[in-house]
Model the fold of this input.
Amino acid sequence: MSSSRPVAWRRALGYIGETMPSILVLFAHPALEKSRVNRSLVRAARDTAGVTFQDLYERYPDFHIDVAAEQSLLVEHDVIVMQHPFYWYSAPALLKEWLDLVLEHGWAYGHDGKALHGKALLSAITTGGREEAYCPRGYNRFTMAELLAPFEQTARLCGMDYLPPFIVHGTHSLSATDIERHTDDYRRVIEALRDNTLDLGAARAFSRLNADLTKVLH
Ligand SMILES: Cc1cc2nc3c(=O)[nH]c(=O)nc-3n(C[C@H](O)[C@H](O)[C@H](O)COP(=O)(O)O)c2cc1C
Done:
């Protein structure tokens, strides 16, 4: 790795450990009262020390996003987690609005847009579709990596490192026990990002970060 790589990137990915990476979870779910899975995952994010949790639909029910406040939050954190249900192969509308408004030219990208350089971005997603549906011969025809390409490339354009996504598939058939297990996995991933104990090299071998945590968390 080049020595000119930004410090936060290295910290977030576990290369140096003198400072705890700070984590911002941007959560977007327009109908949390109907949610089973995200409602549970939210507990893991909210309850973990060192995590700032921002519920976008709670904060901006009218879609009037405070761009300056959101940009300040981004600047203050090393790892940005975008947690949301998969809606029409993408994110709920408010997160798209957030991207459109907050990631300004000259701030997040463009010649002088370096505010996010060196940070890491993690998508934490729940899908109704089962994992096997997300492949060329499957019901949804495309892989998750292909469908998440806009998020990956947005991160890249902003000088951020896009981590392998945390994905919970097949939400409609999950039992309460399954949801607890995924919530526990999510908590462990967030803690590992915070504590620099996530082996990103190992994680990159999997299509999703939580495919086999025994090989990814140390
Ligand atoms: C408007 C809408 C669009 C959806 N689009 C997709 C989709 O493109 N792919 C998919 O697998 N599931 C899709 N779903 C299912 C949700 O992803 C699923 O209900 C959600 O992840 C469950 O999480 P929750 O219990 O937190 O609501 C959609 C659901 C809604 C309401």
